[in-house]
Amino acid sequence: MIAAPSPERRSAKLLAVDTHGRMRHLARTALGSLFRPGDLVIANDAATLPASLTGVHWPSGVAIEIRLAGWTAMGDPTRFTAIALGAGDHRTPTEDRLPPPLLAPGDRLTLGPLAGVVDDALDPPCLFRLRLLGSRAAILAGIARHGRPIQYAHVPEPVALWDVWTAIAAHPIAFEAPSAGFALDWHTQAAWHNRGVGFATLTLAAGISATGNAALDKRLPFDEPYRIPRPTAMAITRVKAEGRRVIAIGTSVVRALEAAANADGSVCPGDGIARGRIAQTTLLCVADAILTGIHHPGESHYELLRAFAPASLLEQISAVCEAHGYRSHEFGDSVLIDAGDTWQQGGRGTGGVGRAPDVKKG
Q1: Sign (positive/negative) of CA torsion 178, 124, 159, 147?
Q2: Neighbouring C-alpha atoms within 13 Å toward the C-beta of 68
Q3: Could you say which of 154, 172, 258, 321 would form a disulfide bridge with 47 (CB–CB 3.0 to 4.6 Å)?
């Protein structure tokens, strides 16, 4: 089942999976009561740019859609890695969209009030480096005025920019929503505060999740810049020293934490780049649990979950979610996986032995 944007996200469901593989069905509002005093919850405060820009490829005169997919340099609004799609809109599955016109270095693009130039054509042909022309202020204003949120066919009705901003959205540098953060609201954060559960943020420029090209999708996620504030790094050091848990709100948080990780579980504050995939063979240093959406095998988000739980448990989670009507994709329900030390034989995520889970109503 696929979810669309809803004004009442507090009605969403949560499947909580503990360190022994036992499962509980809960309302997502129960998040406020699940963690222990001293635990630390970390969320991505990136706000989502309206990163889909329509326009014309002038050498051919053909209509084109450009999806900004990554920063060439963090915070530089003139240069991007981008995906080109041919005529059509989000209602057509990305993999079925018409191909874009052939791009070559120097080709000019008109994207509403924005003008752009193809700096480099990459492989495959839909992937290229885009340079937008003009001042920083004019480019940001043009993106804000003309762009729309990147959207896929599973939600047919157009979404608004506020639909893809989380409650803690701050820095507009993400190209798609860090959607696990939709589970957060001020009621939950107040409950954590009252229980002595810590809360901190970092910023990762979450990139595009699908390109329509199967070979290119296997290379996702692209490199993603992140920033870890010093107070967040200090909180992680304290929590690790006390033997408490770090709970990551979403795969983007895991990518930033593990990219910045030291061997002792502390992290380096400041800016960095999260590169490559986290997968089954990754030994996690920082994140002990993850709150995430309902993902499917083959997706890079699902592959990341293999670092938290063995394949057999992830298959059981998928089966339980399907049987109980959990909603998938970015506006859907949530799963909380507490890795703990259950899979420590050979390192978490390397296929340690767990037993079949019990499933209980919470």
Answers
A1: positive
A2: 31
A3: 172
- Residue 8: phi and psi, rounded to 5, are -120, 75
Q: Is the pLDDT of residue 226 over 90?
A: yes
Do the bridges between strand 171-174 and strand 127-132 make them parallel or antiparallel, or are there none, so unpaired? unpaired
Q: Which of 68, 104, 64 is nearest to 85 (CA)?
A: 64
Which pairs with CB-CB distance under 8 Å and at least 24 residues apart come from 120-124? 124/213, 124/215, 124/216
Give which of 62, 172, 64, 84 is closest to 129, Cα–Cα: 84
At the top level of CATH, the class of 9-48+159-361 is alpha beta
Task: Supply 49's token pair.
Answer: 């740019």
DSSP secondary structure letter of residue 352: -
Contact 360, 23 (CB under 8 A): yes
pLDDT value for 171: 87
Strand-pair partners of 271: 227
Going by pLDDT thresholds of 50, 70 and 90, the confidence category of residue 29 is very high
Weakest-pLDDT range from 219-233, 265-279, 334-348: 334-348
Q: Is the pLDDT of residue 329 over 50?
A: yes
Residue tagged 């992937």 (tokens) = 127
Enter the DSSP assignment of 358: P
DSSP state of 30: G
- Looking at the chain, the domain(s) classified CATH 3.40.1780.10 span 9-48+159-361
Backbone φ and ψ for 295, nearest 5 degrees, come out as: -110, 165
